[in-house]
Amino acid sequence: MHLNIIISAFALAGTALASINTTREYHLRTQLRPGQGNKKQFDGLWLVASHTGAGLNDAVLYANKTYAIKGFENATNITQPNGQPYFNQLFDLGGDFPWDLYVADVNFYSAWEPVRINAGSGAGGFFMNSSGLQFNENPTNAAETNAFGGWLVCDWWHGVPQLFMKWSYYHYDNPSSCADINLLPVYI
User: Fold this and answer.
1) I need a labelling partner for 58 at 20 to 30 A (CA). Which of 28, 77, 155, 165 fits?
2) What is Dmax (Cα atoms) for the chain?
């Protein structure tokens, strides 16, 4: 009796990841934004999860597609002003549960924040447009101005480029080791 319950629980866990995937799978690849000709090393990189602790990862970027993580979206019950849903940006890292992309709001006075890929089922507020992956940090309040200022990649403490999210209300020049990018889906 107990063995049947345990086997059933494992079978359900294995289908949990597949049941929340509501979109076609893709890899996210960087596209250097115009006007940054001397930053070509940040163009065409693939999003990867870099382990930082149990269930914790920083979002980093590699030139080798072999390491790219498989992403998908899970629609939320919150809609954009155009009627389209916001999504949880999730990843399949090979386990029985999804990994969630989220902005680590670690300093309210920073011009940008690190991006994490941690165990979980979704922070919401993501959507795709012609510039790739976008984010709204407060999707439930349509009256509030979205503070998403785009994606930034910097070659800092991991020895490979790391992904950050910029706040739109700060207008600083990027450090020389950083570049503004788009994150485009490359469908599998």
Assistant:
1) 77
2) 65
